[in-house]
């Protein structure tokens, strides 16, 4: 239906409702028209969502909170907890992991690991990211959690921390199990957290590789990535496919173009072709209609502020985190930046202490915010420090 016809219908509806005494605004009709335009994307999969990876803003949704079996997309959480443990120094990529009998018997897609053999964390991570190996996922879980059950608890605790309100994990790999479920939106949330770790793309983008397995390294496995968009969609660098007869075909895909990284999630597609086409369609929609704007980088200097009763008279204020915002194309000129800081501060001040905020507005609506913090610590001055300040003042007077 063309926009002209929609507007005519909208006017007729308003006239009809005014005759019947029902109040409705033209703005409400326009909102319905906008929804209709989004529906023209014609997503046939059971559930789908498109978000901006930086802000988490939802750009498209279809049954985003419907609880569905996530199949191997579950392994996004397994990879997240693994890469977090590496980045935090709890484990290393070169750590040797002993394969348990339980891990080796997971079934489904696997590396065919043998009980008692040893594989590095990195080898297992490659097995999960590229081959979607169930035995590798279980082995990582056992190593990170101490045992498999503890790791599943870690997965669910992390899900709660990320605001994944409609997810419950019962295993680390997504094999069918009653009570194991997630949603398109929750998958997007854990995908958003995963892509905060740049190192993970090193594994998610491997197209083909080989891996020796077995106690004697005598079995060579050729691994091929199941995410076919890696070869066909510009800027795509992850994340994970999934399939079971119950879950059907699933995909969490991410791509970056310019200042924007988007995450597209498809659950319950009827076939593999559909999941790739619909994920790409959502990404195209996002990149066509939105643009990213980098406001400030993490620890970028904002300004200096005065400090009273401290060992230093001034303090540098920096941004706690990077701030990127997402805008509909053409809205960039409507952006306003407001820095909220006091004229002066009183010592003591600790490094990293919040001193103010930088807020971004689009036509008086807040669309982004970052805390401003102290770059360094300043101790409260003592008698000796105050004496030195007075002496410095008299020996180095300010010239007018």
TrEMBL record:
<comment type="function">
    <text>Removes C-terminal D-alanyl residues from sugar-peptide cell wall precursors.</text>
</comment>
<keyword id="KW-0573">Peptidoglycan synthesis</keyword>
<dbReference type="GO" id="GO:0009252">
    <property type="term" value="P:peptidoglycan biosynthetic process"/>
</dbReference>
<comment type="similarity">
    <text>Belongs to the peptidase S11 family.</text>
</comment>
<keyword id="KW-0645">Protease</keyword>
<dbReference type="GO" id="GO:0009002">
    <property type="term" value="F:serine-type D-Ala-D-Ala carboxypeptidase activity"/>
</dbReference>
<feature type="active site" description="Acyl-ester intermediate">
    <location>
        <position position="72"/>
    </location>
</feature>
<protein>
    <recommendedName>
        <fullName>serine-type D-Ala-D-Ala carboxypeptidase</fullName>
        <ecNumber>3.4.16.4</ecNumber>
    </recommendedName>
</protein>
<comment type="pathway">
    <text>Cell wall biogenesis; peptidoglycan biosynthesis.</text>
</comment>
<dbReference type="InterPro" id="IPR001967">
    <property type="entry name" value="Peptidase_S11_N"/>
</dbReference>
<dbReference type="Pfam" id="PF07943">
    <property type="entry name" value="PBP5_C"/>
</dbReference>
<keyword id="KW-0732">Signal</keyword>
<dbReference type="InterPro" id="IPR015956">
    <property type="entry name" value="Peniciliin-bd_prot_C_sf"/>
</dbReference>
<keyword id="KW-0133">Cell shape</keyword>
<keyword id="KW-0378">Hydrolase</keyword>
<keyword id="KW-0121">Carboxypeptidase</keyword>
<feature type="domain" description="Peptidase S11 D-Ala-D-Ala carboxypeptidase A C-terminal">
    <location>
        <begin position="290"/>
        <end position="380"/>
    </location>
</feature>
<dbReference type="Pfam" id="PF00768">
    <property type="entry name" value="Peptidase_S11"/>
</dbReference>
<feature type="binding site">
    <location>
        <position position="240"/>
    </location>
    <ligand>
        <name>substrate</name>
    </ligand>
</feature>
<keyword id="KW-0961">Cell wall biogenesis/degradation</keyword>
<dbReference type="InterPro" id="IPR037167">
    <property type="entry name" value="Peptidase_S11_C_sf"/>
</dbReference>
<dbReference type="InterPro" id="IPR012338">
    <property type="entry name" value="Beta-lactam/transpept-like"/>
</dbReference>
<feature type="active site" description="Proton acceptor">
    <location>
        <position position="75"/>
    </location>
</feature>
<feature type="active site">
    <location>
        <position position="132"/>
    </location>
</feature>
<dbReference type="GO" id="GO:0008360">
    <property type="term" value="P:regulation of cell shape"/>
</dbReference>
<dbReference type="GO" id="GO:0071555">
    <property type="term" value="P:cell wall organization"/>
</dbReference>
<dbReference type="InterPro" id="IPR012907">
    <property type="entry name" value="Peptidase_S11_C"/>
</dbReference>
<dbReference type="InterPro" id="IPR018044">
    <property type="entry name" value="Peptidase_S11"/>
</dbReference>
<dbReference type="GO" id="GO:0006508">
    <property type="term" value="P:proteolysis"/>
</dbReference>
